[in-house]
Fold C4-dicarboxylate ABC transporter substrate-binding protein.
Amino acid sequence: MKFKKSIIEVLLVSFVLAFSASAAAKDLRLGLIVPNSHAWTAAARSMAKDLKEQSDGKYTVSIYPSGQLGSEARMLQQLQTGALDMAFLTLAEITNRAPEFGAFYEPYLVENVEQAGELLNGPTATKMLDNLPSEAGVVGVGYGIASMRVMLTNFRATSAEDLSGRKIRITPFPPVRDFYNLLGAAFTPMPLPDVYDALANGQVDGVDADMELVWKLKLYQRAQTVLNSNHMMFPVIGLVSGRLWAQLSESDRKLISGVAKKHLNALFPKYTKIQAEMTRNVKNAGVDVVDVGPDFFGDVTDEWDVQWTRKAPVLKDLKAEAAAIKREDAPQ
Ligand code: BEZ
């Protein structure tokens, strides 16, 4: 009789424990615009695994890539209302809400993704995250990166003048719009998922993108030239809903932001390799890949700088930090 009672007690305790653990467990929904095969989605998967382990199962993450939850603008709204918990979004989307982030797109601010990593983990970029809760209703937990930007054209391009009047797809945000405007191109704002079809059906003559997209979205199949210009960095930012953040304990905030930042930051060294590999793939596919630098764009980069120093005064500090990073990197 006594034995039977203790079995019942054990079962009862196990049930209560299991129930309270599942009641406290939280599945975080995380959205991305990039496809499942993209390095940002792989970073989200690694983060999810790490977070589950480090929280002993308290936090799991369900990942929604390829814009399944809508455009980045829509995901940002969902973060604000609390309908979405987390997102890895292009910093471009944030720039639409908080224009000072446009400063990161200064042409040739840095020379490569490793330098971008140093700048994005530097004092100015870190401090800029403090403004996000009030400006956009989200908390920024860290930056990562994609490859440096290149230009793909379905016509032969040998000079910046060749871009004049051509319809070039751009990510919809002001810094890149201003750049193509200064180049005299007919810039065509378009989200990533629409790009392949637009190029295939002649809606655009060229695309501002990176080598990973040129390869993975098969854009190279429609290319005559890829101008390997590396003209801008293209950061990703990890965001948590401000509403969710307000409900989290200090230790859970630290855990989630620490794990997210670690996996976003791992993208910087990864992209040095990805960029080289994708460039090789595109060349091997027979596309004319032409290396060009700042001189290719003539006065346009300086004109952009004048415009954006006015729009985003923080650019002055970022340029000073970037100059120091470039000096450290320069061959002795
Ligand atoms: C783009 O709009 O070109 C883009 C979006 C997400 C990741 C990389 C590039």
Q: What stands out?
A: The domain at 149-232+287-329 is CATH 3.40.190.170 (D-Maltodextrin-Binding Protein; domain 2).
